[in-house]
Amino acid sequence: MPLDQEPARQRHLSDKVVIADDDATQRIFASTVVSRIGFTPVLARDGLEALEMIERSGASILVCDLDMPGIDGHEVTRRIRATDLGRYIHVVMLTAAGQAEQRRLALEAGVDDFMTKPLDAAMLTVRIRAAARLVDHEQALSAKHRALQLAKRRIEHDLNVAAEAQRRLLPSRTRDIRGCRFGTAFQPSAYVSGDMFGYYQLPGDKLGFYAVDVAGHGVHAALLSVAIGHLVTAQYFADKVGSDPGAADPAAMVQDLNDRFFHEDGTEYFTMFCGVLDQHSGRLFFCQAGYPSPILARGDGTTELVGDGGFPVGLLATADYHNGVIDLGAGETLILCSDGAIEAEAPDGTAFGEDRLRGLVAEHARKDVEALPGAVVAALAAWRGGRPLEDDLTVLALERSFSA
Amino acid sequence: MIHSHVQSNGLCVIRPEGDRLTALGANAFRQEASALIDAGSNRVVIDLSAVRFVDSSGLGAIVGLLKKVGNRGEVVVCGLGDAVRQMFRVTRMERVFQIYPDADAAVAALDA
Q1: CA distance to A299, A318, A394, B20, per residue, from A365 (Å)
Q2: For a tag on chain A, would you pick the N or C end, based on fewer CB atoms within 10 A?
């Protein structure tokens, strides 16, 4: 396309050209050429005036004589580059023939293009148009960048609000429920988590607790984990596990969840561990539904894995669930960790694994139960070599007090 | 990306790409394997001998194929490493899938 048939560009700031020259004849000549091709000339008689005009007019193109009284073209360019104007200023420098060393200095100062005096109208025309194309392009990119930044800030804000809403679903300040003390850690891999947990006092001096881990992570998984968090209330828990004083039935609750969340054409599912502790006897009835086996820290310093597996929830219509039972003695602790713990990989790809986790728990179990989850989080951070976890992490530690 | 060996009798051996079947690749694995089932393979061997780690999304993809084939055929797995076998144990998938030591054993059993 010939230059003079260039379609009318949507010009914003690049329609103004500052012309800085101490020679009035040169100024007027350049101004005429610039006007003829549809730009608005803004005239300056020296370097300081040029800087002022750039700031005041919003121009993005400067045609500047090198030799001017006061501050010269080099200095004008240096000051422009040192100032944050919020836009790029394209600088075309006018030099006399044979000023090769001056041109090198001008490039160092930040000049974009050169023209040799005396000025030629055709050459100035193409240089200004080339400069305008670059300026327009730069401005279009800046506008896109600003739009993306704005969108990113909105999305981050939304996610932070969602993350806060999810955290509010977790048991808040309650660290003690009649004879039991809890320690927890909840770390989403990004903003919101596919994990959820809860614990509550149930009728008949019983205590209910659960942890779930939705397959996958991120927003998609969090939508389901939050739905579960709203569904599994103390009331729901108490209704489903039954009121038999001798034996609770957490498997019945898991069965109900499987009936609710299984869809023939669905792909979502979750793993779960839930339990009911009789606070008098220390009998703990549990149901393991694909969730990693919790670690039981015994009073004698040994550890055991609890449960031998079970179907995840919402994965298979025909899944059936079973109860297990253990005794949790006074001073003993049960620790649930989502699979984000054992699956956490060191920089060389080695998984943290069950044995290391058991070792860590054995080391910390006799200390403060509230501090234990933090110790797991710290050990995993060290194992990861500072890289963030790739999966959501939950640690729920439950200690039966001596005074129960 | 998967590697598959399709036989004319509806038998197909599928190997997932790479040594991990996780959230990152599980969807693509499911879609590509689903296409093979749509194309007529209804006896599927999922060969996990090169896979050292399957996460919950990977397991979801494997079970998704089982649901898709349904009563029309069979989905079996083979070549389970320690970590994958542990995952199958804790989720009771060892009761859902026939597990074979390797692809040859799986194919022989399905062909019998």
Answers
A1: 9, 38, 17, 33
A2: N
The pLDDT, as a whole number, for residue B5 is 79
Residue A391 carries which side chain, given as an amino acid letter?
D
Measured distance between the N- and C-terminal CA atoms of chain A, rounded to whole angstroms: 88
Question: Average pLDDT of chain B?
Answer: 92
**Contact flag A312-B91 (C-beta cutoff 8 Å):** yes
Angstrom distance (rounded) from CA B76 to CA B103: 10
Which residues lie below 8 Å from residue B1, measured CB to CB, with a gap of 6+?
B17, B18, B25, B28, B32
State the Cα–Cα distance between residues A106 and A113, nearest whole angstrom. Answer: 9
- B59 contacts A351? CB cut-off 8 A: no
User: What is the extent of the structural domain holding A87?
Assistant: 3-143
Positions of chain A with pLDDT lower than 50, given as ranges: 1-11, 13, 404
- Which uninterrupted H or E stretch holds A272? strand A270-278
CB-CB under 8 Å, A292 with B60 = no
CATH number of B2-104: 3.30.750.24
pLDDT of residue A10: 46
Nearest CA in chain A to B67: A264
Nearest by CB to B56, which of A271, A288, A293? A271
pLDDT of residue A250: 97
What CATH number is given to the structural domain containing A138? 3.40.50.2300
H/E element holding A270?
strand A270-278
> Which residue is listed with tokens 């025309």?
A125
Question: Is residue A352 less than 8 Å (CB to CB) from chain B?
Answer: no
